[in-house]
Design brief:
Helix content: 10-25%
Number of strands: 7
Largest sheet: 4 strands, antiparallel
Order of helices and strands: EEEHEHEEHE
Number of domains: 1
Number of helices: 3
Structural class: alpha+beta
Distance between the termini: 17 Å
Strand content: 35-45%
Length: 112
């Protein structure tokens, strides 16, 4: 089992009440034994923006089973995004017709 966390970075801004905000959350749908996984946003997002700003928005690291002792956040050798907004394996019949949901990112992690 892998422990994986994603943290959003950036300055906190004061909310402008004249703007209609959309709150976006994300979850890690699954991580397999082969170090592949899937992250899904709760609403469609601009995948071009995510692609262009991924390194500024996310810090990805892992913790080994000795984290309680060593307190080390370890960086990955590589985090490859296999698809930006595409569902590679549709789970529901309605996803087969339109596999691009602008919500799903599939990835592969390479550990040091």
């Amino acid at each position: 089992m892998y422990y994986c966390t994603l943290n959003m970075k950036g300055e906190i801004t004061v909310r402008d009440t004249t703007i209609n905000y959309t709150y976006i959350n994300y979850t890690i749908n699954w991580i397999g034994d082969n170090s592949e996984g899937s992250l899904k946003f709760n609403k469609p997002v601009n995948m071009t923006f995510i692609y262009d700003n991924f390194a500024e928005m996310f810090k990805v690291f892992w913790r080994d089973t000795n984290y309680r002792v060593n307190r080390e956040n370890r960086t990955l050798m590589e985090l490859e995004i296999n698809s930006w907004g595409a569902i590679l394996d549709p789970y529901f019949p309605d996803q087969i017709a339109d596999p691009y949901d602008s919500m799903t990112m599939n990835f592969t992690m390479t550990f040091a």
